[in-house]
Amino acid sequence: MSALLLSTLLQSGAGLMPDPDRPSPFPASDSEADISAKVAELRAFFGSSEQDTRNTVATAQQRALIERLEARHAARLAGIWVDNDPGWHVVVRLTGDEPVADEVHGGADGAQYVHFRTGAALTEAEMQRRLGSHRDWLMQQFPDTLGFHLDVRTGELNLMLKDTATHRATAAASLDHLQLMLGFPVRIQWLPPDTHSFPP
Asked: Which end of the chain is more exposed for a tag (fewer CB within 10 A), N or C?
C-alpha cells in the first residue's frame, strides 16, 4: 500500500482531522456502485494499483463497521475484535443469552462478515471499571508484574509475571481474592525469569 494512500486512511480515523485536499477512503455506502466509484476516485488521485486501493477502502469500511457495531451494541458490548486471516471478519462478544444474527456486508475486497458471540457475564466497560477500582490493590500484591490487560475475547484479566518461586507463592496466596474482588477470571501468563520489561 502506498504511503500516501495509507496516510489518507489514517487521517480519516476517529479523532483525526482529515486532509481536505485528499479524498476520504470511505465510500458513500457498501453498494458495489459506491465502492467502485470510491476505488476509481482514489486510484485517479494516488495512482495506486487496483488491489492496493481496494484493500484501503475495505480497511476503511471495516473501521466504520466497527464504530457502528460499538454504538449499536454499547449496552451489551463485552468485546469486539478483528480476525482477518483470511478474509474480513469482525467478532462481537455480547453479554446475556439473547441471540443476534450474524451479518454480511458488501466490501471492496470481498464480503465483510460480523460474527456475534453471546453469553458474556460483564461488559468491557464494567470490567474496566472494576479493574480501575482495584488497580492499587493489584499493584500492591504484584509490584513486579510486567503488565496486565483485559482479554476481551475470553473475559479474563491477563496478568504477566516472571516464573519465580516468589511470584508463584504470591499468586497462590492472592489470585482467588483478586478474582473475587473483580468478579471475573484472572489468567496468569508465566514468563521466563530473565524476561526484561521495556523500558528497563
From this structure: C
